[in-house]
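So, could you explain this one?
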Amino acid sequence: MLETPIFSTPSLPAHFCIYCSPELRCVQTAAGIARAASDSHASICVEPALSDWVQLSPEGSSKNWLTTNQLTSMGYPVQEGYKPHLTQLPKNESPEDYLRRLSSFLTKISGSSESVVVVVANAHALEVARNRPWTTAEQLCQIKKAIRNCATCEVGVDSDNKVYAVEPLMLPFTKTLKDAQEKMMVK
């Protein structure tokens, strides 16, 4: 459960979009962010392109996510009319294919008309946003070990689609609000 305020500035737009992986842990985090930004109307777009690398699942298994209707009936503020960038994952995926999948989606939303976009996904998506590509499965596993859960990264995109770090709007996820505020002062 997230406590308010999680944003370090009150200047969020009245409406912003949260894109999240269909993994339930990501939907739950996105819903917490939406609730914590109570002055804004935030909607969650569940995006399969942000899901984990398919090779991390047991061989022969498929991803079984809750549907948008199921999530809505459970009280999650999911945007029901959202058309995903990707509707079906491949059965097999190389590390390079996974990088292309995440990059393609992040490139798509970089052209969004929204002034603020929040992406809730796994550590690999964070690395793509930071322009840190990988080429091997071993590198993917190292990323998963190196980045803690609920890590955040805030970036901007210039007119040439170059990504750059920006001053964070959202406080880091910590056990208490005081810890988050102290962590922001250290940066």
Summary: The chain has six helices and five strands. The first strand starts at residue 15 and ends at 20. The chain has a mean pLDDT of 77. The chain has one domain: 15-150.
